[in-house]
Amino acid sequence: MSGVVDLHRISRIANRLIWALTIAFFLAGWKIHFAYHFLTVFFLLLTVMNFFYRHVQTEHTILRNFGILGQARYILESLGPELRQYLFSNDTEERPFNRIERSEVYRKSKAVDSAMSFGSALNYDANEIKIRHSMYPTPKEELQPFRLTVGEERGVESAYTLTKPVMISAMSYGSLGAPAVEALGRGARMAGIPHNTGEGGWPKYHLMTGADLIFQMGTAKFGVRTEDGRLDDARLAELSAKPEVKMIEIKLSQGAKPGKGGLLPKEKITAEISELRGVPMGKDVVSPPYHAECRSPAATVEFIQRVQQVSGLPVGIKFCVGNLDEVRTLFGEMTKQQVFPDYIAVDGGEGGTGAAPKPYLDGFGMPLLPALCNVQKLLLEVGIRDKLKVFSAGKLINAAKWVHGLSLGADAIYSARGFMLAMGCIQALMCGNNTCPVGITTHDKSLQHGFDVEDKAQRVKNYVDGVDHDFEELLLSIGVKDAAELSPSNLYVPPASIISADVLGKS
Ligand SMILES: Cc1cc2nc3c(=O)[nH]c(=O)nc-3n(C[C@H](O)[C@H](O)[C@H](O)COP(=O)(O)O)c2cc1C
Known about the structure:
- By secondary structure, the protein is of the alpha/beta class.
- It folds into two domains: 7-87, no CATH class; 130-504, TIM Barrel, CATH 3.20.20.
- It has 18 helices and 14 strands.
- It has an eight-stranded parallel beta sheet. A two-stranded antiparallel sheet has the order 1-14.
- The longest helix has 26 residues, at 453-478.
- The chain binds flavin mononucleotide.
- Flavin mononucleotide is lined by residues 169-172, 175, 198-199, 216, 251, 254-255, 318, 347, 351-354, 393-395, 415-418, 431, 441.
């Protein structure tokens, strides 16, 4: 067909040309000048490779049919994400975070003004949630500083007070390398916000930074487990006594892979990991999809109480919303036993992870905003909203998103990937491969080389300060004096939005 490039024909010509050039340069090297033999060697190598691709290997059809030129397809395919990111994708196209969203975080983390000109680059279409401003904005001096005390409902002696609406959400040492953990911790300390350890075990690197910590206990209870994977009370008590550890979080599930455990292969269990996680070397370790102690609503509530008693600290649970009847029953059981976690962290199905199977990443878990609306509704319905706090996580990376979360029932915001971006994450989507090009989710020293802990810690702080500043400005424009006053009425939720039914109370 005219106008169509015949790649097959081109490859046939190229394949012949390669060995023809090999012979030509060999003759030139023999008859004209020895230097031509360098080219002979080069083309000889290409000829051998070509022969191998076309006649020896059987795995790749393209290479068998097209020889060395077919290799270009594999090279271009592997470069595809980078080419799309840098050359072809427009500013609103990329996922999970588009370029506009990412550059706002980059600018905040570098303390650069993020004002834009001319108009919004987003689709100002009918589906987007917008914030309602007031005709009578609040005067700045009337704005109340943010304060949220977790554990006050139970009268816990060590109740913990947040003075900013955001916290660093769970990311374990393991999924992150040590320099990233250190930068997050140091940034958190400077910004005055707590740092969740994730489920990576004894928080050795987190403890070095002096930040306030929320220790997360995953289903394998790394760091505080008995040999058979149940809770080791003595170990938890020892950890809870550390002055840096302010709260304990029991992870029931997470948005990126709800209902799924994990496997730590024995090859990855170094002496350090074995020590921090409390697992033997030389044996695969299975993280079950559930806590052995939490096989029913009653047992789950009993377990929450046990952790509260052993730790003496505020204790929260984290989950991604799935079956609403199960959530309702769990809340009912709390009422029955008169035992309440000090907070519930709602993780949206859009949540991030170091690694998760694709069907779980893409196909499981209620998105954050409807999940929040439903949890809020159920807490009110069961009559226990005043017994605990609600945290929320799921792409809440800027001030407008904080307002969305806080208006729909959250008391505070968790962010994981916002902080990764603040540390320079370029969304290379390689967190699970140990090849993170910016040294965040890798343990490869040569890739960590370019990651300057001090600079990144400062960026973490700048990011918190920048978004918090924007958030306060938004509160003034909304016309409230306190973040606690936010409610769904502060949002314009178009009928086509994912949460219109939840907010408007329709089924
Ligand atoms: C690299 C990475 C590691 C994570 N590790 C954990 C973990 O150990 N435990 C957990 O509950 N969630 C973990 N998460 C999920 C986050 O804590 C958070 O719930 C989720 O990413 C949603 O927040 P975000 O949209 O702000 O990232 C991880 C996320 C990322 C990106």
